[in-house]
């Protein structure tokens, strides 16, 4: 277990980096924590695709990604979303670097199911030494959710998957999956804590849409060494915490 904390910014969350958000980042840094940020940007990608008359199709929470859709995804994530986020961090006096998969092959991936999803992948390997070097220099990596295959083909990767794989590889202390809701809701109640078994059980008819792969990735991260995964809409609230601890809903 390391002193690293991985934060995944959702497409909406990335545009609402509040004073409280940066106060929390500064608090962690003052405690000696190493912070890694993975950003989404799906809403921006969808808007650009619509402007360019490219079909937006979501299957099982994943964006079906043609070659044209992949080009737009790269352009928006690396050229628009990431610079906006890194600039906000810099304005807060935080040393950052924006990264994508082509930087030292930091994220290697493979296709999920090319026949169904096109150029959609899952991260299979993280360049841990590269990230460790940056973190030791007190730099916050801000990473786009893209990967390269071993043959240098670009892949669109779910941001939750990307953040979870990085957290697993770094054996992170905590992973925050920021989204547009304050946690997981069951029978009109927001849930504070879930064990691995309880989280897995929720996939059967309780969770819908993008929350299904989010919880699947969170469970995998805890199983592979991440102490706590928080699904929340802000990092100063723990939201729903998934961990090894056996608790009841």
From TrEMBL:
Substrate binds at residues 41-42, 63, 156. One of its GO terms (cellular component) is cytoplasm. GO terms for molecular function: acetylglutamate kinase activity; ATP binding. The record marks 8, 214 as: Transition state stabilizer. Belongs to the acetylglutamate kinase family. ArgB subfamily. HAMAP family: ArgB. This is Acetylglutamate kinase. It comes from Vagococcus elongatus. The gene is argB.
